[in-house]
Design a protein that fits this description.
homodimer, 315 residues, alpha/beta, Rossmann fold, Helicase, Ruva Protein, domain 3, 2 domains, three-stranded antiparallel β-sheet, 13 helices
């Protein structure tokens, strides 16, 4: 069994690649829910949905999120009201949030809803939210007046402000009281492969590690854990991981990633573009495995998946 | 100023007629919210939306509710999940519920949200919910086992079961603790015309009267109040008012309507088809005014509106 710690688009693509090279039923993905947002009364789980839609081959490939062939009648009408349209919800995508919210009001757990949604899309990978409890990634940014700061929800920063504002700090509200979702710790402990997907280390993987017990469980598997760098040639392939790392005092490079993951991952897969930094990665105490890691298509994702499976050190 | 007590489709059509014969700004409609339902986490107000969409000339004329030219992508996708699709929500209509729910979570009152929605649709009539507090129309019907009863929400019966099951009793949960929405009692007291629209007396007008103070306020205007019968030739024009009246021990005729409204309305407008029952209506102590009351189109609605205005006894 393979256990993947997953954020959004990058994780979804690697998981799609893994499904092409091993049995979906042998894969468990623990997915970040710190990005979740309650908007219009609806419980929205962007990373879970991105992973689900991608594994169902239903994702909009261009955007990387949402459903292909989506329509936007609800959002267009919401504009008439001056409602919150900054977080785009397609008409078909809305159904996912309607279903999830209804089931949660009926006291289903997020784990149960996640499994039901995945089943409805024919997804064979076992998807677990990191927790059934609410954990909110909150971001502190510069306030409107000089010298002030303001804390906003992750999506207000990421989508609402186009992640164009420097981040002063990040915290995971509720994490200390959250419990890992059923099966998470067991899966980390028993998996043959433990993979940290190429997701933002701070706001995609960070929330998972903030749930009590998860970081320790991953660290206990440290020598076998394989992480995939989300930074290639000093830049994030998607999203603001590079700038955020710099804002928070880290180096936006595979070396910076290696430093962040050194206590958790014995191996880091880095792109060929960063082959010259392999020694610097290894100087951080992390084995460097060089492989093409830019998943431009399904074939590239499958190739990376093979490289990740091969990167695990032999026992 | 004209004050209308309003339910759904019949009330919406009469209000549309009134707007053609008097200034919209001189009309206030107090609308039933006992039919409201929280589904998928969304706060849905079917009667308010029917009135709003009808006054905006945006309603689906065939159905009588929802928006014309609607699409159903969200509902179609919700079927994939086995979600609650019995209550049909069009993609554009969903925006109304998203906006309302978001504003309510931001602590706006239902009155404020209702005004904002009406304004967005260019509706000149002042629309008031009967109350900003939650009142739920609950219906007791036969249970699954012989001799048992079960209580369900109004929409579960009306839409979910196609109102095909006999009603044993009706109650308005929360009504005793509800307050009339701001302006309701003042409007009833000060209106030149007080009109009870052709809506179901029990489950459309009944909830309004169950809000403390409303029935007394209407009764105080009794001699000037003009009701329009929702029953024509012994049948409801739309919906289950006729069967429900019989189920609950009333006569499904203009005479039965006159008996129900006698304490509240000095005048009842009845259709020409019921002209032969005018004397029987008057025997209940209610003036009968005969006028064509079937609103097959906008011209007929305007004609009925004129008849209603003329039906008010001269002071």
């Amino acid at each position: 069994m393979l256990l993947a710690l997953a954020g959004g688009v990058g994780a979804a693509r690697l998981l799609r690649g893994l499904v092409d090279v091993m049995a979906a039923a042998d894969i468990t993905a623990v997915v970040n829910t710190g990005d979740d947002i309650v908007l219009h009364g609806l419980h929205i789980c962007p990373d879970l949905d991105t992973v689900t839609y991608t594994l169902a081959d239903a994702v909009d490939g261009g955007r990387g999120w949402g459903l292909a062939g989506e329509t936007w009648a609800a959002m267009e009408t919401l504009e008439r009201y001056g409602g919150h349209t900054w977080f785009r919800l397609g008409d078909r995508d809305l159904a996912t949030h309607l279903f999830r919210t209804q089931r949660l009001t009926e006291h289903a757990t997020l784990s149960e809803v996640t499994a039901a949604v995945a089943r409805a899309w024919g997804v064979g990978v076992r998807l677990l939210p990191m927790s059934d409890d609410r954990v909110e990634t909150r971001v502190t940014i510069a306030g409107p007046a000089a010298g002030t700061s303001v804390e906003v929800g992750f999506q207000e920063w990421f989508v609402g402000r186009g992640h164009g504002v420097a981040v002063e700090s990040v915290r995971f509200l509720g994490a200390e009281d959250a419990r890992p979702a059923p099966g998470v710790l067991e899966a980390v402990a028993s998996a043959e492969h433990v993979v940290i997907c190429p997701s933002n280390p701070i706001v995609s993987i960070g929330p998972l590690l903030a749930v009590p017990g998860v970081e320790d469980a991953v660290a206990a598997r440290r020598d076998e854990v394989v992480a995939v760098s989300p930074i290639v040639a000093g830049a994030a392939l998607k999203g603001p991981a590079d700038r955020m790392m710099v804002d928070l005092g880290h180096e936006a490079s595979v070396v910076g990633v290696a430093r962040l993951y050194a206590p958790l991952a014995g191996t880091l897969v880095i792109d060929e573009a960063d082959a010259g930094l392999a020694d610097a990665v290894e100087a951080e105490g992390v084995r460097a495995v060089v492989a093409p890691s830019v998943m431009t298509g399904r074939a590239e994702a499958a190739a990376l998946a093979r490289a990740v499976l091969a990167a695990r050190p032999s026992p």
